[in-house]
Design brief:
The protein is mostly helical and 230 residues long. It folds into two domains: 22-103, Putative methyltransferase TM0872, insert domain (DNA polymerase, domain 1); 105-216, Rossmann fold (3-Layer(aba) Sandwich). The protein has helices at 22-28, 31-42, 47-60, 66-77, 92-103, 105-119, 133-146, 180-185, 211-216, and strands spanning 125-130, 168-170, 193-199. The longest helix has 15 residues, at 105-119.
Length: 230
Amino acid sequence: RGFSFQADGPLDMRMGHSGMTAADVVNQLPEADLARVIATLGEERRARAIARAIVEARAEQPLATTAELARIVAAAAGHMSGAAGSRIHPATRTFQALRILVNDELGELARGLAAAESLLVEGGRLVVVSFHSLEDRVVKRFIAERAGQTGQVSRHRPEIIDESVPSLRLVGRQVRRPRAHEIETNPRARSAKLRVAERTGAPFWPGDLAPDKLETLGVPDIGDALGALK
């Protein structure tokens, strides 16, 4: 389904069968919006050069395969980055950005955390493993808010909920990372972060998780960049 550039496939990247595809994004978004998506969701410093290269390539013909996109990105971004033994392909961050956008991964993560909060009984534990900083930021902010550690009053929560009563409490250290032997056994775990929280007896914090609320949890608001796809 085009999730990886290691094997050639269609530029799809959807986890389901509806909605926009990665091909729609790279072939239709204006250059500035495409650069914004790659920079924001891929945390790619060379986003402008990559977006420019994609726009120039699609002017010749629409991009259709992962191998084609990977070649274009690699040529624009340069060599692999990172220390020897942990280097990543120059297209990795761009592919990450497209996958996150197409599947609304950060929004789904926030909604999943809220659903877990509402379903857990007192003493139940929420255990979350994230694999990149964007995911971890959402998890960290959600748990901190529900544990009453943000120090901010949210206008998105009904007044009937007591702001002083946290629905979650942190368990142990705030974040756990894999040990050296775990990384040696499973190199993909090197970026993993595990956070644990326990449900209190307080009511869960209902909310509609509208775009502005999602943004307070660390979900980037790039909705206006998708106008060309609607």
